Amino acid sequence: RKLREAEALNRDHASMASSDVRKRLSFAAEEGSIRISEALRRRGRLAVVGELKRRSPSTGDIATYADAGVVASELESWPLETLVVCTDRDYGGSLDDLKAAVKATSLPI
């Protein structure tokens, strides 16, 4: 189901500079937060990836935090190489979560 959804998003938003998907990608690129692959290759040992995700369609609510930036800031003290912020609405995410996390932490996002 997600593959079909991703294909449809790509098709629908490919030529729309103002689409939500394009905004998410350009925001991440402008903020310098697309550094995950670099962070994962940096060390010669197991890399731990943190994830901010509010909900799972199969399990329901996972976390009910109000501010993704606060959580991202707290996770900075954990032994993480990078942080993933789920922006998918099916998972309770949003572009605001991504923006808050990017502003609150120096972890690669």
Helix-strand pattern: HHHEEEHEH
Roughly how many Å apart are the termini?
Answer: 25 Å
Overall number of strands: 4
Dominant shape: globular
Q: Structural class of the secondary structure composition?
A: alpha+beta
| Range of helix content | 40-55%
User: What is the count of helical runs?
Assistant: 5
Strand order of the largest sheet: 1-4
Q: Largest beta sheet, briefly?
A: 2 strands, parallel
The poorly predicted ranges are none
User: What is the typical, i.e. mean, pLDDT?
Assistant: 77
- Relative strand content: 5-15%
Radius of gyration: 15 Å
Outline the structure in words.
By secondary structure, the chain is α+β, with helices and mostly antiparallel strands. The protein has 5 helices and 4 strands; from the N terminus they run αααβββαβα. Strands 1-4 form a two-stranded parallel sheet. A two-stranded antiparallel ribbon has the order 2-3. The protein is globular. The model has no long low-confidence stretch (mean pLDDT 77).
Q: What topology emerges from the helices and strands here?
A:
Elements (H helix, E strand, L loop, with lengths): L1 H12 L6 H11 L5 H6 L7 E4 L2 E2 L3 E2 L6 H8 L6 E4 L9 H10 L5
Parallel strand pairs: 1-4
Antiparallel strand pairs: 2-3
Helix pairs in contact: 4-5
